Predict the structure of D-isomer specific 2-hydroxyacid dehydrogenase.
Amino acid sequence: MPLLEHFDVVQWQSLPSPDAFCARHGSDVRVLITNGMAGVPSLCRDALANLALIACNGVGYDAIDLGWADARGIRVINTPDVLSADVADFAMALVLAVFRQVPAADRYVRENKWGRQGAFPLARRFWGSKVGIVGLGRIGHLIANRAAAFSTQIGYTGRRQQDGVAYSYFPTVLALAGWADVLIVTTPGGADTHHLVSRAELEALGPQGVLVNIARGSVVNQSALIDCLESGQLGAAALDVFEEEPHVPESIIHSASTILSPHIASATVQTRQAMAALVVDNILQHINGKCLISPVN
């Protein structure tokens, strides 16, 4: 572990409870390494009296209270860019898996249905589809580049229309969903995007529409998603993220209209190594009084 070459590292799980950890180590902690889902537990904020840097090992930092950090003079970093391409790759993998029914075809062969029942049912082609991207940031742009190779039409929505972007802009998620064949959610999580994709958007996407979420589970209204899948108002969903991870509702697990993965869009050896290296490099910059490489605040 590279950090051990420079620092005393204490694992949060080294003591039986957060209270015990804070009581023993709280005043000694100068840097906290976390992720965008765990953030900084509220129960230990006051105990970390000398905390100066929060290093978020991930691109999302929605669980970190930036207002509190700013008020305390605590810097926050994340690890953008190094994971974007892998997440974009995985988004496309989910899209293709849904349209071409790859998991079902795999099971069809493994369960010997090919020999007993004959040809696998026809799937749906992806090329030529209308691809809607919710949040055209770093990852969204990379997804658009990959989707363009399939001769797709590409639309997007976001806070504003971006200059120099040739893709079609839609002012709302609802308008984009009504146009798209597949809606790919890449927007950050947090209060501003909570349930940004809800029942109206899912119904607008329609009985043939496909939802792909590689952002945060909180962005999609999960209850509405379940209802729309069960009623046939939405065609299918490919989900890498969920509202209460790692808990996934049984209705989503057992739905024939879902393809699921355990929040692994950035989970490659190379990317995780690059993320860890960027965290370490930021911490070293901070300790040595130099500019942070990827500051959030």
The chain has a mean pLDDT of 94. The chain is about 35% helix and 15% strand. Strands lie at 31-34, 53-56, 75-77, 130-134, 153-157, 168-169, 182-185, 210-213, 236-239, 258-260.
